[in-house]
């Protein structure tokens, strides 16, 4: 192991260079093309990572452009899976200090969309595996790094991949927080038709169901009383109001500033007779779900979160919202849907939902205890596994948990402008992944 650690540190600059190149691919979900179900740029990024891995001497498989894997073949039939993704959420370049797809280094940090979520951690795992190989390690279990291409938009990549490939015996996803995440809240993302807006009013915000919107625009023939960080303009008999907020992951809405909220309050104040606006402003802007009557809690994973992430005006003047709810692990998607329907006005219509049941892997399993020991020993601490509201690939297969990459008390930039990875943190996580991979595959 000492030799492997030395090699990993010696190759750190190469690791950073490969990561920079993966960042330069704009892997936001695009139009499907031949061999590229999620867009040409994602395909190019997957091809690049697989070629780098092949050049390292690993076996590689491209699973129809949905995902790919890299194998360091072991002596038994067992497989350790390491699941991460190459796709990213959208970026608005004007909100960034540096180009989101530039891969630039400033003040010891590498900036770019995907540096933490999830290209950086997966490249760290790749180079950790390379260090083990170059040090002469012979794993008992095959080490399989699985690179998905649609984690941010529904995980279709993994559904397809696991129709063609077997599940690993044990697995982890470097796509959450340290120390170990063995509990992931349920996800219920749904679209709701909330009825009519006043005539002459439109509202538009958000692009992704799991991203707190940083920009919202309202047009109205009636002048509104401005509140919050909202600007007003007037042209051709129409007032336009623009609200600026701060993006964040939909599972942690309080870490952002939702640009929709002040404009809904302004509209509700201006049109007090409109039941749709009253419902939206008074019930749907509470990130705990309490005002809506859907707040839940359990001791294993804490409180429900509620994030209103997309809002649109339909052609017939209805307002359509998309809401991202993360609910505690003691409940089910069926329970969540029933609660929403019971506590929404009769004029609201559920249009569709993406639902994912909670994940709960017991703390005393071999996988969790091994990863916890790796972390606690390396960091000289004595902490326990944690729960999150985010959803990782861990819920796509049995016996899988999230392991890093975000360290406790480290700044959270995932899904935010200026996403970045501290290079010292990258080095530290790579060493943790090296030890974890070794421990989980040595016998």
SSE topology:
Blueprint: H1 2-10, H2 12-23, H3 40-55, E1 59-63, E2 67-72, E3 79-85, E4 105-106, E5 109-111, H4 119-134, E6 142-148, H5 156-164, E7 170-173, E8 176-177, E9 181-184, E10 186-196, E11 202-205, E12 215-220, E13 230-235, E14 238-244, H6 260-270, H7 275-283, E15 297-298, E16 302-303, E17 305-313, E18 318-327, H8 333-342, E19 349-356, E20 359-360, H9 366-379, E21 386-388, E22 400-402, E23 405-406, E24 420-422, H10 423-441
Parallel strand pairs: 3-6, 3-7, 7-22, 8-23, 9-21
Antiparallel strand pairs: 1-2, 2-6, 4-5, 5-24, 9-20, 10-18, 10-19, 11-12, 12-14, 13-14, 15-16, 17-18
Helix pairs in contact: 1-4, 1-10, 2-4, 4-10, 6-7, 9-10
Structural description of this entry:
This protein has 443 residues and is α+β, with helices and mostly antiparallel strands. Helix content is 28%, strand content 27%. It has two domains: 2-184 and 359-441, Aminopeptidase, CATH 3.40.630; 186-356, Alpha-Beta Plaits (2-Layer Sandwich). It has helices at 2-10, 12-23, 40-55, 119-134, 156-164, 260-270, 275-283, 333-342, 366-379, 423-441; strands at residues 59-63, 67-72, 79-85, 105-106, 109-111, 142-148, 170-173, 176-177, 181-184, 186-196, 202-205, 215-220, 230-235, 238-244, 297-298, 302-303, 305-313, 318-327, 349-356, 359-360, 386-388, 400-402, 405-406, 420-422. The protein is globular, with a radius of gyration of 23 Å. 50% of the residues are buried.
């Amino acid at each position: 192991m000492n030799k492997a650690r030395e090699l990993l540190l010696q190759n750190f600059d190469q690791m950073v260079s490969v990561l920079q190149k993966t960042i330069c691919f704009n892997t936001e979900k695009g139009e499907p093309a031949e061999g590229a179900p999620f867009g040409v740029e994602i395909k190019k990024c997957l091809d690049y990572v697989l070629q780098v891995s092949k050049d390292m001497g690993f076996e590689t498989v491209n699973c129809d452009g949905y995902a790919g894997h890299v194998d360091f073949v072991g002596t038994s039939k067992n497989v350790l899976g390491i699941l991460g993704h190459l796709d990213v959420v959208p970026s608005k370049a004007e909100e960034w200090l540096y180009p989101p797809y530039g891969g630039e280094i400033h003040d010891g940090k590498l900036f770019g969309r995907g540096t933490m979520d999830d290209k950086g951690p997966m490249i760290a795992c790749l180079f950790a595996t390379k260090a083990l190989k170059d040090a002469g390690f012979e794993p008992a279990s095959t080490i399989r790094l699985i690179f998905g291409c649609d984690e941010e938009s529904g995980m279709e990549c993994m559904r397809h991949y696991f129709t063609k490939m077997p599940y690993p015996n044990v697995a982890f996803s470097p796509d959450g927080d340290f120390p170990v995440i063995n509990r992931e809240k349920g996800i219920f993302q749904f679209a709701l038709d909330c009825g009519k807006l006043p005539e002459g009013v439109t509202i538009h915000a958000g692009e992704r169901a799991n991203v707190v919107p940083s920009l919202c625009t309202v047009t109205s023939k009636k002048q509104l009383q401005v509140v919050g960080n909202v600007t007003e303009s007037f042209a051709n008999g129409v007032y336009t109001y623009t609200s600026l907020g701060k993006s964040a992951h939909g599972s942690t809405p309080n870490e952002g500033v939702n640009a929709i909220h002040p404009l809904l309050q302004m509209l509700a104040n201006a049109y007090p007779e409109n039941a749709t606006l009253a419902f939206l402003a008074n019930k749907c802007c509470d990130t705990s779900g309490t005002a809506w009557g859907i707040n839940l809690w359990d001791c294993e994973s804490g409180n429900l979160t509620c994030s209103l992430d997309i809002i649109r005006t339909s052609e017939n003047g209805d307002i359509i919202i998309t809401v991202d709810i993360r609910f505690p692990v003691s409940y089910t998607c069926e329970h969540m849907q029933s609660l929403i329907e019971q506590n929404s006005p009769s004029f609201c219509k559920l249009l569709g939902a993406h639902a994912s049941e909670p994940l709960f892997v017991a703390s005393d399993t071999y996988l969790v205890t091994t990863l916890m020991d790796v972390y606690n020993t390396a960091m000289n601490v004595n902490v326990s596994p944690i729960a999150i509201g985010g959803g990782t690939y861990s819920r796509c297969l049995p016996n899988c948990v999230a392991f890093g990459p975000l360290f406790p008390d480290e700044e959270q930039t995932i899904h935010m402008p200026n996403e970045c990875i501290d290079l010292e943190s990258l080095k530290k996580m790579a060493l943790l992944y090296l030890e974890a991979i070794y421990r989980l595959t040595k016998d």
